[in-house]
Design brief:
Elements: E1 5-8, H1 12-23, E2 32-35, H2 39-47, E3 51-52, H3 56-62, E4 65-68, H4 75-82, E5 91-94, H5 101-104, E6 115-120, E7 130-138, H6 142-152, E8 156-160, H7 166-174, H8 176-193, H9 198-219, H10 223-230, H11 236-246, H12 249-270
Length: 271
């Protein structure tokens, strides 16, 4: 890829994206530019041979794809500052939670004549396994979508959706890692309760979730079918499944996604 990548905001998510892009060869380190008000974060970017710069405008002047990776309350401030320097070659990618395309293209932000892509990533981006979704706005077209897809495929998976579905994405994959961490912790606690040492229980629980997820992705089989493959008649697994159903575990996960989705809708209206 011959595009130069810029980050306005050089926090952990920006760092994970930059490292992933470079590691997978979709861009070269010398083609990555970043700025942040915290000097230590700029030094982190310098440590893997990218180009920390002094300000937002310099990022825009140096790069073609601009990631807006600041806290949501600062997005419009940043876009208002750099707006006079935006050109047709620029694609603006916002990863700020709850900031709608309408807010991004407002008169006091980037404006309507800019290529805008809104992305909802999640924290497994930090280990190269994000589950993300994007939607397009402004002058963005299929070429911009393909550009963003190539970038994010280097750090996980990304899917294109209508913006009205991004709150559901937030409720599922955005908040989902916390649900999975809770599940891993609970599985490990069960192992400890059954006599396993804590460190072994934690590793077994985490590896079990990792392996199970790979089976879903690689086999393409329905989760119910994979569950049935694991349950032998009158066996240990179906006994455990019975207890999970008795506790309403399935409904609890569904309700968690719905609650997070509703909260994301509320926050989007407040932005």
């Amino acid at each position: 890829m011959d595009k130069r990548i810029g980050f306005i905001g050089a926090g952990q998510m920006a760092e994970a994206l930059a490292r992933g892009f470079i590691a997978k060869g979709v861009c070269r380190a010398e083609h990555v530019f970043a700025t942040d008000p915290v000097q230590d974060r700029k030094e982190v970017f310098r440590s893997f041979s990218t180009n920390p710069v002094d300000g937002n405008i310099e990022v825009v002047q140096s790069a073609d794809v601009i990631f807006i990776a600041v806290k949501p309350q600062y997005v419009s401030v940043v876009l208002r500052e750099v707006r006079p320097y935006l050109e047709d070659r620029h694609t603006i990618v916002s990863i700020a939670a709850g900031i709608t395309l309408q807010s991004l293209k407002a008169r006091d932000a980037a404006g309507d004549g800019v290529r805008l892509v809104r992305v909802m990533p999640n924290t497994p981006c930090l280990v190269g396994e994000t589950a993300a979704a994007m939607c397009l706005g402004g002058k963005a077209d299929d070429g911009d979508a393909e550009l963003v897809r190539r970038l994010f495929d280097s750090v996980g998976k990304i899917y294109r959706v209508d913006e009205k579905l991004l709150s559901a994405v937030t409720g599922l994959s955005g908040s989902g890692p916390a649900y999975v961490f809770l599940m891993i912790e609970a599985l490990a606690d069960g192992g400890v309760r059954s006599g396993l040492p804590r460190d072994i229980a934690n590793q077994l629980a985490a590896q079990t979730v990792l392996g199970s997820a790979k089976m879903v992705l690689q086999t393409g089989k329905h989760c119910g079918a994979l569950k049935d493959m694991t349950c032998s008649p009158a066996g240990t697994t179906i006994a455990g499944i019975h207890e999970l159903e008795r506790a309403g575990t399935r409904a609890a996960f569904m309700n968690a996604v719905l609650a997070a989705t509703q909260r994301a809708d509320e926050l989007a209206k407040m932005a």
